[in-house]
Amino acid sequence: MKKIFIALLAFAAFSACDIDRTPHGSMDSDTIVGDPDASLQPLLNGMYAQLKSWSDPMHRMGEYAGDNMMIRGSSTDAFYEFISYARTPNNYRLTQFWNSGYKAIAQASNIIDMIDEGQSIEIDNNIGESYYVRGMMYFYLTRAFGRPYYQNPETNLGVPIVNGTPEDVLNMNLADRATVKESYEQAISDLKKAEELLTLDKGAIYASKEAAQAILSRIYLYMSGTYTSPNSQYAQLAVEYADKLINSGKYTLLPRAQFMKYNTFIPENNAETIFAIKRVASEFSGYDHYYGVGGMYANLGGMGWGEMYASGKYIELLNETGRNDWRPESYKMVDARAAFIKPTYSKNADTGNYAEVFRFIKEDGDVLNYVQANITRNGSVITAKEGSDTYTLLPVDADQGIYSIVYKDGKNYKGVIDNFISLNRVYPQFYITKASLEGEESHLHSPVISRLGEVYLNRAEAYAKLGNYNAALNDLNLIRERSIVGGGYASLDASNASERIDKERQLELAYQAERSYDVFRNGKSLSREYPGPHKQFENISATDYRVVFYIPQDAINSYPGTLTQNPTQ
């Protein structure tokens, strides 16, 4: 029999070998087929291991290209291209995302191809886990490298469909990229097969029937068109798969107080988490604490660079229904999602006290910048001083510490009285902790792929696209009122559904790598009018060529066949 070797932790996609001596860390097909019970678990462990390296660039590509975060300045790291939209194919993080994704696909495919179904419930469940991982990878790869589904999916290119090791590895000539439609169909087919085979509940760090249903609800939502031109067939399927998961009763939304600590719970002990990629402290090196996702968002306990912060736009969105006050002496979260933000308040070195400032964002020519002007109180009169200029604060909502000033440029700026937040370069450090502190372990984080909160929002959007606004409102308010007590909307209709549902997705799913894809799949433009080194007044439309990432040049160079690049303009 031809020997097919599957590396357990470092699998080379599309690899095979005809020699008789098995390489270290591999298994040949005779061993696997002859004793599947003993072989499957280490093979599955290797498959899941690929998700760990894949999840890092996955997060950066989805989140950095959105409008929830800012960076203190330009960077030579390859991830800066995701922020700046200066797309290039020679990006090692893109290569990592592609390679790890296809290694997981290859590992899953070889398990599927070599193990027969029907031997036992446990083996069928293991095969179902492989289908889940493969289907999930095809979806994530397609949404990164293929255009939004509403834009001609029959002709736009998705990703290559390569399910398993070809028979003749010495003379391989693999097919070019499938279309977006075909790539989505492959993902759906795999996930439906996973749904059929997955009958055991092994916890949130393993694939499950409900995990497959959660991704299917999202995929069909991505296929459901835009709010102005919805596809009712796919919107209905998004509802049906959300129904299946919600009605299973296996998951519950965390109460508000617990939700505000969501990031600190391990996924196995989180009633809302459906599937997460498990990380453990013992494998989390000091390198990860600095260079991992959480380490870029905050410095906690002396660990991490802390060079990326919540954007001014996201802070404003959090404060829309009432000011969130992070000051230790008056801590109050109006929106529970604000609990994942941690400003770095700094005490005066001489007095040991916090310095009060009036913080606002001003227009400085064609650039937006923060100002933190020291304030002085004289009875009921409050003044703020910036350089040699002094301004009288005009109350907007004095109880919440919200004021405005008429600035020297003649413009009226609104801001808040707050403690001074330490700066990195010229930017106040609004640290983000949503990707840190799991088990209170600095930047330990198990990336969440699916949770119940998202599934309710999937169903809300699908209902809205079907014109069922009452049902959409119920789901939307279930999520909104958990975070904002009494903040639910009184009504929802065609005039406001798009804005309100998309806003809630941004608030709820921030720092989970969804935002940029959510904007473009609904045909909207991305605006990032807030302080930071990016192009602040550039609107990136859903039809912009930069909405999709380039196929990594390394992948094109090594591909056995034609692998078409995405357009460069």
TrEMBL record:
Signal sequence, start to end: 1-18
Any one of the GO CC terms: cell outer membrane
SUPFAM superfamilies: TPR-like
Presence of the UniProt keyword NAD in the record: no
Top-level taxon of origin: Bacteria
PROSITE patterns cross-referenced by the UniProt entry: PROKAR_LIPOPROTEIN (PS51257)
Major subcellular location class: membrane
SusD-like N-terminal domain segment(s): 35-221
RagB/SusD domain residues: 272-567
Pfam families: SusD-like_3 (PF14322), SusD_RagB (PF07980)
Protein keywords: Cell outer membrane, Membrane, Signal
Localization (cell): Cell outer membrane
Similarity comment text for this entry: Belongs to the SusD family.
Protein known as: SusD-like starch-binding protein associating with outer membrane
Highest classification ranks of the organism: Bacteria, Pseudomonadati, Bacteroidota, Flavobacteriia, Flavobacteriales
